[in-house]
Structures are given as structure tokens and as C-alpha cells.
Amino acid sequence: MRLENAKPVSFAHDLPPLELLRSFEAAARALSFTKAAEELHLTQSAVSRQIAQLEDSLGVPLFERRHRAIVLTEAGRIFQRAAVECLERLRDATARLRSVPAPRQVALTCTPGFASLWLIPRMAHFTASHSQVDVRVSASLEVVDDLDRARLDLAVRFVPLGRGNGPALFEESVMPLCAPRLASQLREPADLAQQTLLTIDSPGMGEALTLDWDPWLEIMQLKDLRMKSAVRFNHYTDAVSAAMAGQGVVIGRMPLLAELVREGRLVAPFGSGASSSRGYFIETSRRGAGNPDAQNFIRWLRAEAELVRAA
To answer: Which of 72, 129, 166, 209 could be cross-linked to 76 through a Cys-Cys bond (beta carbons 3.0 to 4.6 Å apart)?
Structure first.
């Protein structure tokens, strides 16, 4: 076939403007016009108008609008895959033309407690030997089901034992922890009845203040224990901070708090803990499986976890 006289293909009237594709990709990834607007430094109404303009030009709805939520339609899912591929190829081509190597990045999601109490204190160990790799940590209690759609390489899941979909980092055990000056008041487990309980105000717990305490209380045969008062927090890290300040007793999730115990900032007045029948597991996306830096990060995570188990 001879192509010498073939006319260049014109995309002028066939493709939507690039800003509409960027807004759609961000909204489809976050499933939120508000979060897309924050990422793109636009207003929520501007993103909403751009999505409506894109849908009008295509002649099909890309999102199903629900009460306080949006979900992709079948057409939206098809267009999302095409948009992501298009934008990534444009990004890679731009980087090559600028003679700038594509950014090396590892993106992961995990719980806020795991991030602040275990991962972040150790991150310098990884970055010291991988200085060219940017690590993006998304700490949230919301479970990201589709890691690839969220452009994440891996997730550290906190789930019941036996339900992890990847290699285990470590199992969790629980035990009461408090500040050293409070420990002198706790000679035996029954003394907890005179202390303030520091706990998490989790959805669905209702009045079950000691839900996380149950494994330890059962071993100690203290299932009916009622503490003097309680202070609820939205985040576990806040409860831990209150315990270090001597404001009460928190259920310690080990090994997340092992370093604080070794440093003497928290003490375990009653010795060893009880298994919570939960643990931390690594789940890898297709994106992460093809990212050498993500694989190095996973190996580093497992090596750090092995050091914890050996301690």
C-alpha cells in the first residue's frame, strides 16, 4: 500500500479538550467531583460543568449521580480506561521530549494508625537507600477496592487472620498500655475499674466501648469489667497520645506501639498480650506488580516486619 499522498488525520473536531479529559480522569479515579476539584485546583461547580460538557459532547452519561455519591456508568468505565491510557502516554512522551526521566514513585494505601505509628517512623530506612523514589502514602480508613483505578501500587490491609489476599507482615496482639506514672496504680487487672478508658468511637460500635479489649479481657477472665469513665476519639493515634499524657489506659495494638514501649513512653503493667485474630497483609495491584520500585518497597516492608518479629 502506498501512503505518500495520504492526508494527515485531523483530530480537531473529534476529540474533547484536554482539560475535560483531566477533570473526567480525576473524578473517575476519586469518584468525587469535590476531590477532583481539590486535586485540579478548581471549584466543584467548575468540574461538574466540565463533566456535563463532556457528556453532552459524547451523547452518553459517564456518571450516575446518586445522593452524595457518583458511580461510573458502563460508558464511563470504558471511557476511563481510554482516558487514563491517553493521559499516561502523553505524560511519558512529554517526559521523553524534555529529556526528563519518568518519575519513580511508589503509591500505597493503609490505615492512619499503621502509617503514623509504624510506617512513617521507619520510612527514612527506605528513602536512605532509594533516594530517587518518591513514596506517596494515602492513609485512610476507607478501603480502596480497585487499586489500579486509584493508581496505587499496593495496599497494607488490616483484616482478620486468614482473609488477607497477599503476604502477611505480622499478626496483631493487644494489651493495656499507659504512661509510666499511671502504672503504679495498676497492680492487678481488676484495678482497671478505677481508671479512664481511652477508646475509639468507631461506626457501628454503639456503646461497646471495650470492643478492642475483648481478647485480652477474656484471657484475664474480666469480661464484665467496667472502667470508671471513658474518653472516645475518632483516631487511634489520638487515644495513644492521651495515654502517653497519663490521661487513662489504652488498648495497645502490637507491634504498632512496640517502639513506644521500648522507649518507655508507654508501659504494659500486666505483661504479655492476647491475639486479636487480626493482622496486616500486603496486596499488590497490577500496576505495582510491574513497578520495580514498588517491588523493592514490598521487600523492604517485609524485612522491617521480620526485624519486629525478631525483636
So the answer is: 72
**Grid cell at residue 105:** 514513585
pLDDT tens track for 65-100:
988 889 999 999 999 999 988 888 888 888 778 766
**Model pLDDT for residues 137-179, shown as the tens digit of each residue:** 999 888 888 899 889 999 999 988 888 788 899 999 999 999 9
Question: CATH for 172-274, among 2.60.40.150, 3.40.50.1860, 3.40.190.10, 3.40.462.10?
Answer: 3.40.190.10
- Rounded CA gap, 240 and 260, in Å? 10
Q: Which three cell numbers stand for residue 119?
A: 510506617
Could you tell me the three cell numbers for 279?
A: 493482622
Neighbour-count burial for 143-178, b at 16+ CB within 10 Å, e otherwise = ebeebebbebbbbbbbeeeeebeeeebbebbbbbbb
Cα three-residue angle 26-159-72, rounded to 5 degrees:
25
Residue 198 parent element (H or E): strand 196-200
What CATH code is assigned to 18-97?
Answer: 1.10.10.10
Question: What global pTM score does this model have?
Answer: 0.66
CATH code matching the domain that covers 105-170+279-310, chosen among 1.10.468.10, 3.60.140.10, 3.40.190.10, 3.40.50.360: 3.40.190.10
**What is the four-CA torsion angle of 281, 286, 290, 292, rounded to 10 degrees?**
-20
